[in-house]
Amino acid sequence: MSDDVDPLLRGRAGLSYAELDAYAHRLHELLTAVAERQIDAPLLHEFTIDVATDASSTLTPPPGYRRPAAGAVTTTLEVTSRSVPTATTHVRVTVWPALGGADVVDLLVERHDTDHRLEVRVDEIHPDVGEPLRHRVNDFVARQVALVVSDLNVAMQRGISPRGWPRGDG
User: Whole-model pTM?
Assistant: First the structure.
Protein backbone atom coordinates (compact mmCIF):
# COMPACT_ATOMS: atom_id res chain seq x y z
CA MET A 1 0.00 0.00 0.00
CA SER A 2 1.52 3.34 -0.96
CA ASP A 3 1.93 6.24 1.42
CA ASP A 4 -0.26 8.52 -0.69
CA VAL A 5 -3.43 6.55 0.17
CA ASP A 6 -5.87 8.49 2.32
CA PRO A 7 -5.45 7.20 5.91
CA LEU A 8 -9.25 7.03 6.27
CA LEU A 9 -9.28 4.34 3.58
CA ARG A 10 -6.41 2.18 4.87
CA GLY A 11 -7.95 0.18 7.65
CA ARG A 12 -6.82 0.18 11.26
CA ALA A 13 -4.14 -1.36 13.53
CA GLY A 14 -2.64 -3.17 10.54
CA LEU A 15 -6.01 -4.74 9.75
CA SER A 16 -8.06 -4.23 6.62
CA TYR A 17 -11.60 -2.96 6.93
CA ALA A 18 -12.85 -6.50 6.23
CA GLU A 19 -10.78 -7.84 9.13
CA LEU A 20 -11.93 -5.03 11.45
CA ASP A 21 -15.53 -5.75 10.44
CA ALA A 22 -14.97 -9.40 11.40
CA TYR A 23 -13.84 -8.24 14.86
CA ALA A 24 -16.93 -6.03 15.11
CA HIS A 25 -18.99 -9.17 14.49
CA ARG A 26 -16.94 -11.09 17.08
CA LEU A 27 -17.63 -8.33 19.63
CA HIS A 28 -21.32 -8.41 18.72
CA GLU A 29 -21.38 -12.19 19.29
CA LEU A 30 -19.74 -11.70 22.70
CA LEU A 31 -22.33 -9.05 23.65
CA THR A 32 -25.15 -11.35 22.56
CA ALA A 33 -23.78 -14.36 24.48
CA VAL A 34 -23.34 -12.30 27.65
CA ALA A 35 -26.86 -10.85 27.32
CA GLU A 36 -28.36 -14.32 26.84
CA ARG A 37 -26.56 -15.51 29.98
CA GLN A 38 -27.71 -12.51 32.03
CA ILE A 39 -31.33 -12.68 30.94
CA ASP A 40 -32.08 -15.67 33.10
CA ALA A 41 -35.28 -17.56 33.99
CA PRO A 42 -36.78 -14.97 36.40
CA LEU A 43 -36.62 -12.28 33.71
CA LEU A 44 -37.97 -14.58 31.03
CA HIS A 45 -40.82 -15.54 33.35
CA GLU A 46 -41.95 -11.91 33.64
CA PHE A 47 -41.03 -10.54 30.23
CA THR A 48 -41.35 -11.52 26.60
CA ILE A 49 -38.12 -10.69 24.79
CA ASP A 50 -37.97 -10.55 21.00
CA VAL A 51 -34.49 -10.27 19.51
CA ALA A 52 -33.73 -9.25 15.94
CA THR A 53 -30.20 -9.06 14.59
CA ASP A 54 -29.86 -7.30 11.29
CA ALA A 55 -27.31 -5.70 9.03
CA SER A 56 -28.98 -2.32 8.74
CA SER A 57 -27.93 -0.13 5.87
CA THR A 58 -29.89 2.87 7.16
CA LEU A 59 -28.22 3.58 10.50
CA THR A 60 -25.79 6.49 10.61
CA PRO A 61 -22.53 5.90 12.46
CA PRO A 62 -21.18 8.40 14.99
CA PRO A 63 -18.39 10.72 13.81
CA GLY A 64 -15.15 8.82 13.20
CA TYR A 65 -16.92 5.50 12.69
CA ARG A 66 -18.31 3.73 9.65
CA ARG A 67 -21.00 1.29 8.67
CA PRO A 68 -19.47 -1.96 7.36
CA ALA A 69 -20.13 -2.75 3.71
CA ALA A 70 -22.52 -5.55 4.74
CA GLY A 71 -24.49 -3.13 6.96
CA ALA A 72 -24.38 -2.06 10.58
CA VAL A 73 -23.76 -4.80 13.15
CA THR A 74 -26.88 -4.27 15.25
CA THR A 75 -29.35 -6.01 17.53
CA THR A 76 -32.79 -4.75 18.45
CA LEU A 77 -34.68 -5.98 21.50
CA GLU A 78 -38.37 -5.50 22.19
CA VAL A 79 -39.15 -6.33 25.80
CA THR A 80 -42.77 -6.60 26.95
CA SER A 81 -44.23 -7.33 30.37
CA ARG A 82 -46.33 -10.49 30.48
CA SER A 83 -48.53 -9.10 33.28
CA VAL A 84 -48.99 -5.61 31.78
CA PRO A 85 -48.86 -6.04 27.99
CA THR A 86 -48.92 -2.28 27.40
CA ALA A 87 -45.54 -2.03 29.17
CA THR A 88 -42.95 -2.32 26.42
CA THR A 89 -39.47 -0.97 25.79
CA HIS A 90 -37.17 -1.11 22.78
CA VAL A 91 -33.39 -1.30 22.81
CA ARG A 92 -31.01 -1.10 19.84
CA VAL A 93 -27.28 -1.80 20.24
CA THR A 94 -24.79 -1.41 17.41
CA VAL A 95 -21.07 -2.15 17.09
CA TRP A 96 -19.33 0.47 14.94
CA PRO A 97 -15.81 -0.03 13.50
CA ALA A 98 -13.65 3.10 13.27
CA LEU A 99 -12.54 4.86 10.12
CA GLY A 100 -8.88 4.20 9.35
CA GLY A 101 -7.31 7.51 10.32
CA ALA A 102 -9.96 8.78 12.71
CA ASP A 103 -8.89 9.78 16.22
CA VAL A 104 -11.32 7.43 17.96
CA VAL A 105 -11.12 4.01 19.59
CA ASP A 106 -11.17 1.02 17.19
CA LEU A 107 -14.65 -0.35 17.95
CA LEU A 108 -17.60 1.37 19.59
CA VAL A 109 -20.62 -0.35 21.12
CA GLU A 110 -23.50 2.13 21.20
CA ARG A 111 -26.95 1.84 22.73
CA HIS A 112 -29.03 4.10 20.51
CA ASP A 113 -30.86 7.10 21.91
CA THR A 114 -28.64 7.09 25.01
CA ASP A 115 -25.10 8.06 25.90
CA HIS A 116 -24.30 4.45 26.86
CA ARG A 117 -21.17 3.40 25.01
CA LEU A 118 -18.40 0.87 25.35
CA GLU A 119 -15.08 1.56 23.63
CA VAL A 120 -12.97 -1.43 22.57
CA ARG A 121 -9.42 -1.45 21.22
CA VAL A 122 -8.46 -4.03 18.59
CA ASP A 123 -5.79 -5.50 20.88
CA GLU A 124 -8.54 -6.39 23.39
CA ILE A 125 -10.24 -8.67 20.87
CA HIS A 126 -7.42 -9.59 18.44
CA PRO A 127 -6.10 -12.22 18.24
CA ASP A 128 -8.33 -13.41 21.13
CA VAL A 129 -10.88 -11.84 23.44
CA GLY A 130 -9.07 -10.84 26.63
CA GLU A 131 -10.43 -11.40 30.12
CA PRO A 132 -10.53 -7.66 30.94
CA LEU A 133 -12.76 -7.10 27.89
CA ARG A 134 -15.05 -9.93 28.99
CA HIS A 135 -15.45 -8.18 32.35
CA ARG A 136 -16.14 -4.81 30.72
CA VAL A 137 -18.71 -6.35 28.34
CA ASN A 138 -20.34 -8.15 31.28
CA ASP A 139 -20.62 -4.86 33.20
CA PHE A 140 -21.94 -2.97 30.15
CA VAL A 141 -24.61 -5.60 29.47
CA ALA A 142 -25.58 -5.84 33.17
CA ARG A 143 -26.08 -2.07 33.26
CA GLN A 144 -28.26 -2.18 30.13
CA VAL A 145 -30.36 -5.10 31.46
CA ALA A 146 -30.88 -3.24 34.74
CA LEU A 147 -31.98 -0.11 32.89
CA VAL A 148 -34.42 -2.06 30.73
CA VAL A 149 -35.94 -3.74 33.80
CA SER A 150 -36.20 -0.34 35.50
CA ASP A 151 -37.87 1.23 32.44
CA LEU A 152 -40.33 -1.66 32.28
CA ASN A 153 -41.07 -1.36 36.00
CA VAL A 154 -42.03 2.29 35.49
CA ALA A 155 -44.18 1.38 32.47
CA MET A 156 -45.84 -1.44 34.44
CA GLN A 157 -46.62 0.88 37.36
CA ARG A 158 -48.25 3.30 34.95
CA GLY A 159 -50.26 0.45 33.46
CA ILE A 160 -51.61 -0.91 36.76
CA SER A 161 -52.34 2.31 38.68
CA PRO A 162 -55.85 2.20 40.16
CA ARG A 163 -58.49 4.35 38.44
CA GLY A 164 -58.20 7.97 39.47
CA TRP A 165 -54.68 7.66 40.87
CA PRO A 166 -51.85 9.52 39.19
CA ARG A 167 -50.06 7.24 36.75
CA GLY A 168 -46.66 8.79 37.34
CA ASP A 169 -46.43 10.19 33.82
CA GLY A 170 -46.71 13.85 34.55
Answer: 0.84
